[in-house]
Amino acid sequence: MDKNYLPFHANPSKPKFVVPVGAVDAHCHVFGPAEEFPYHPKRKYTPCDASKATLFELRDHLGFSRNVIVQASCHGTDNSALLDALKNAGESARGVAVVNPNISDDALKLMHDVGVRAVRFNFVKRLVDSTPRSVFLDIADRVKKLGWHIVVYFEAPDLEDLIPFLNELNCTIVVDHMGRPDVTKGVDHEDFKRFISLMENNEKIWTKVTCPERLTAQLPKNGQLPNYSDVIPFAKLLVEKFPDRVLWGTDWPHPNMKSHVPDDGQLVDVIPQIATSEILQKKLLIDNPLSLYWND
Ligand code: 0GY
Predict the structure, then answer these.
(1) CA-based nearest residue to 58, from 25, 107, 18
(2) What is the pLDDT of residues 67-101, one digit of tens each?
(3) Domain 24-293: CATH superfamily, name plus number
């Protein structure tokens, strides 16, 4: 693990908010363990190992029933740890892979059989070297045939440039972490308005109202973790405006956090502040993820 890397919370609290039965944590990762599933030689960071067993314990502790496990950049295009977790989880997990353009149809089919339902295109410069958009478009054409969708990860300043590409993909797209807004600018800033109009203009675009811990500008104070009140308006607005196109996840084990180690129980307690009715909570935590990841 990198020097200064913050490992995940060792003892997360039990949330006060009781999630509805069948709820899905739709954004989380498994890392290693490195001895069994080595990290990619070209990775930009080396995390703390975060095994499938620990992820499944956390799922149960928080009251969730299912996980969507997302391949992270530290494993590159080697999806072995992800596929191993999916095989062990059976119907209780689905996956989002990162693939090479030269992957065979047979390998894609094997991934499908263990529960992969999407590929992730990462545009975050600190995490990956850039990939030509034509390569991504080719991958998208191939996985669409399996009924998969595309998960994209980018930061707000890159959105304007990416809009033509996102529209060209012409399939369901899930944008990680609300397009990573700079929350200090507020929900009325042009950057967030651009993201809202993207979702208004393209009904195939969904988003994960995730990562208050990553997006907040708050710092721990007097031994108290941030309450994420600066991120809540962004997520709440999206949940209310696009109730059928939002997903929620813990983002465990929270790679590359610098400011603090989030308490996953407290993150769950943010849910009723962004989805304020039982109807919205059920869409966010059950109906929406099931329709995308457990629809066959
Ligand atoms: C996340 C966030 C991060 C890392 C990755 O692929 C990755 O390595 O996704 C990050 O550092 O922002 O999505 O959990």
Answers:
(1) 25
(2) 999 999 999 999 999 999 999 999 999 999 999 99
(3) Metal-dependent hydrolases (3.20.20.140)
**Mean predicted lDDT score pLDDT of the chain:** 97
Confirm if 293 and 24 have CB atoms less than 8 A apart: yes
SS3 151: strand
Active site residues: 251
CA 209, 213, 218, 224 torsion-angle sign: positive
CB of residue 122 inside a 6 A radius of ligand 1:
yes
Q: Is 256 near ligand 1, meaning CB less than 6 Å away? A: yes
List, in sequence order, every residue forming a beta bridge with 208; answer none if it has no partner.
247
Asked if 68 and 295 count as a contact pair (C-beta separation under 8 A), the reply is no
- At 102-150, the pLDDT tens digits run 999 999 999 999 999 999 999 999 999 999 999 999 999 999 999 999 9
CA–CA distance, 51 with 43 (Å, rounded to integer): 18
Residue 242 banded pLDDT, cuts 50, 70, 90 = very high
Please tell me the residue having the least CA distance from ligand 1 atom 5: 72
Q: Give me 197's structure tokens.
A: 């109009």
- Please confirm whether the linkage preceding 253 is cis (ω < 30° from 0): yes
Q: Where are the domains of the chain?
A: 24-293
State whether the beta carbon of 251 lies less than 6 angstroms from ligand 1. Answer: yes
How do residues 13-22 score in pLDDT, each as one tens digit?
999 999 999 9
Pocket test for ligand 1, best of 1, 124, 251, 267 (most atoms within 8 A of CB): 124
Cα distance between residue 18 and residue 276, in whole Å: 13
Other Cβ atoms less than 10 A from the Cβ of 179: the count is 26
Pocket test for ligand 1, best of 46, 127, 216 (most atoms within 8 A of CB): 127
